[in-house]
TrEMBL record:
Keyword Cell cycle: no
Protein's name according to its UniProt entry: biotin--[biotin carboxyl-carrier protein] ligase
The EC number(s) this enzyme carries: 6.3.4.15
Enzyme's top EC category: ligase
One BP term from GO: protein lipoylation
A cellular component annotation (GO) from this entry: cytoplasm
Keywords assigned: ATP-binding, Biotin, Ligase, Nucleotide-binding
Molecular function per GO: ATP binding; biotin--[biotin carboxyl-carrier protein] ligase activity; transferase activity
Amino acid sequence: MTFFDKAQILEHNQWLEDLVLLDTTPSTQLEARGGLANTLYLTDHQTATYGRFGRKYYAANTGGIYMSANLGQSNYEKHVQYTILAASAVVSAIEKLTTKKPTIKWVNDVYLGKKKIVGILAESGPSGMILGMGINFDIQYFPEELSDRATSLYPNQEYPSITESDLISKIWSEFRRLENLNYLEIYKSHCFVLGMTVSFKQNNHDLQGVAIDLTPQGELIVNCNDGIQRILNSGEISLKKWTE
């Protein structure tokens, strides 16, 4: 099991009342859903990981960070904002600790280059908002079907310049620091989707247009090819092409 420095993480995040370290678990989301508020559940090994829309999320046996925080009571309508805030905290933490240049794919994925390194999931649980993250820290192998779209913060045997605990500590301290600041500007400055042609499905219709901006709530504004401007607050988008 990866050594996670509980004392370090709690010292830099005094809003956390507890940190539960798990050797293995089906899902930290499930642990947090039934857990206490202001508690972080953390492991490097999950057996039944899931992401948005309940889809299975690849979790390697080694090299990953999987964590979920029970944030206490909150509003369902703020799911998008929590996801936006979390993504902003992740890119801010990575940039403060490393020389890496992460970007964001709306709404919940963090990328290095053209490959995903972090997935974020916000859900409501019985005791409040559950915010989960799966981070490819130094996973060296991905299944063939993922190898062209997933990578790690430290891929190809690159020696990590920080520890997992350094990153975890900084992500959650940035999350709380940015909470009352204009984190949307951080998000927008890293969101490579803006200005690109995107495809999506809405009301059973396949649509396409240019993503032009975000609303103050983090929803995606798209000028569609049919002349109608639409606002997306959830769902999947596909990119027509990647910028170089």
